[in-house]
Every structure is written in structure tokens, then in C-alpha cells.
Amino acid sequence: MTKPLVVFTYAPAGLGHVRVSDALMEALPSDFDSVVFSPSNHSIEVLHRFGSLNIFARRVMEWFQNGTPEKIFTQYYRKYLKSHTGDLFLEFVSLVKSQKNTPDTIIIVSTHFSLAHQLGHIKQRLAKSLNAEIKLVVQITDDSPQSIWYVDTADLIIAPSEKTANTLEKYGTREHLAQVPFKVLPYPVIPLFSRQLSDQKILFRQEQYNSESFVPINIVIPISGAAVGMDFFIQTMEKIHLLSNRFVFFVICRKAPFTQKFINNIQNKSYVNVFVSDKYQDVVHMYNNIYLKNVISAEITKPSEQAFKALLDNDSVGGSFLFFANPVGRQEYDNLKFLKKNGLLSSNPRGIILPKDADNSSKFIYELYQNGFLLKAFKKFKPVKNKAEIDDDGATLFWETVIERFIK
Asked: What pTM value is reported for the model?
């Protein structure tokens, strides 16, 4: 009997779903084979960026994420995706047949709804052509119960919270869609990040929070795939560094025509370390390596998938303090609600929301380092883990669930 084959699907629509796939790949048990399926679809990338950057488009996007507009949009977009599968069938079959072993069982793991709807629609044809049992598992990548995440051809949908799972289940019933089983598991953060730091590195992170120390303060700034907020990040870095030259920044950015000006602007600044690549996967891997090779005390980021690093202990590799920039889109507001509900933005938090402008944000960050707030939070914070929504081993639990349900 051959090993089951896991097919991870990528869509060129930002870095969030790539990070989640990366976390699931790293936790993949050795008794699976795996391959990445990333069909080219530049229209998804263009729409993603346009909807994130253009103010009018952003308002339209947010309008379509709620109420009656969301219902109408979801109905039409689901039909559109299912009727526009293009060459997916041939590309998928060719990819599987190129593998060394011929699998009897194929697990498609989708962290983006567009490919999930498309591959789910042709799943039976694929199974017949490949003479294999095919299961489609969808991992929701924000704690946001947007109805487009109800993939009616999925064999399992995994949600980061009971609220999102229950809302989507009710939506499926209300719209008379095929019933799909849901499972609530902690958001899958890459296991590398949940490793505990050595005692020496824990002390170094603590020293960064100490206003009387002279050690460099390492702050990571990941630029989103749509490159939202570049001016904000440039100004915030400049202003913080003027307040104290202890601050050192690690900026990770995808190289693209719309990010080149930003890269040129920061790459010669002595207090900024710049990491760029034109490939989504490389950007994610560079980000991971920065945390593995350096002790990072904080991250300035959008409240997208990065918000879920708040699930990590603050003495773990990825347990930096999170400064959240202005949310864009319903999903980022929903992620912040998740953190607030679970006490991760409370009096001894793992993260905090920044003011809207760079001037106040820089002063705010500097003051939290100076007044001992971050040092106190670092020493006192201990998350209340419940294995349902709040834990740092969601990626491992994902595979335990898949094995239990689909591997005979």
C-alpha cells in the first residue's frame, strides 16, 4: 500500500494562506507523501491587491462582506468558480501522475476558498481519472465566518473558533447546501515558532523590553502580499529610530513592481535589514528564518493571519509582542475580536492595536518599551489553553484529525 498523497494548494492572493500551508507542511507526519499544487491565476492576485489598496474598491469589498450583499456575492461567486476551472483538471492529473508513487488516497488541503470550490467541483472526475479516493479538507485562514468559506463539496472544514464554525453551519442549512462536517481546532501556527527559546535567548528577549538595557531591540515588519501600508511602515520605523537608536528592524517584502519604490527607500537605512524575493513561498521562508536566527521582541503587522501568533507563549521562538496596524477588511476586524474574546488583548496582553497614524504609533511603541509595560507583560503573560481555540499545536491537531477521519 502506497503512502497517502497530500496536495497543498496555493493561490496567488497574498501571503496568509501560504503561511498556513507552510505550518501544515511542517507538521505533516512522515507517513504521508506531499506535493504543492499552485496553478497560475494572476487575476486572483490582481483582485486581491486592488481590493486591499484602492480605497473605493476596499469599501466595495467590505460592503460585499456583510448582510444581503454578501449573500448575493457568495451565490454568484461560488457558481463562477465552479464554472471556471480552466485547465485545473489536466494540471492536477499531470501533477499526481508525475509523482514517484501512485497513491490510493489523495488529501487535498486548501487554505484558499477559490481553489477549494474549483477543485471540489471536479473532485469526482479527478478521483475517477486517477483511480484514487480523494478528500478535500479546507482550513479557514481567518476567524471570520464569511459565507464564501462554506465549500459545499468539502469533506471537512476546519475553523479556528466555535463561533465561525456554527455561523457557517447555519448558513449552509439556511441556503440548502450539501451538509459538510466542521471541526474546531486552534489556528495552525508553524511548529518551529512554538519551540521554547533557550534560557539565554529568553533573557535576551527580556533585555530588549528593559528600558535600562543597551541591547538592540529587534522588531520584525512583514509587508503583506498586497503591500498595504508601506508609507505607514517607513514613517513608523524612521520615527521610532529617531527616538532611540536601539531599535533595529527586519523587513520582509515580496519583490514586485508595486513594492520596488518601498524597497529602494529602506534598503540603505543602517537600522533596517531588508529581505526580498519575488516568490511567495520564499518570502514566508525568509520570515521564518528571521525568527529562528534572531531573538525578536516585537512585530508590527496587520491583524491578518499574523494575529494568531498571539496563541504562542511569549518565551517561544515566535512569541514576540504584536503591534497591530489598522485593520483592512472584515476578516481583520474579526481576528481582533477573536483575540479580545480570548483575553489576548487584555491587561497583560500578547498584542495591542496601534493608533492610526505613524507619528502616534511610533511614540506609542517607544513609550511601551520605556515605561516597563512590555517587560511586565512578558513576565506575567500565560495563556489559558483549552485545546479547542487557544493552543499552539493546531497544525499537529490538524493531522491527527485528518488521520482519524480519512486514513483507514
From this structure: 0.91
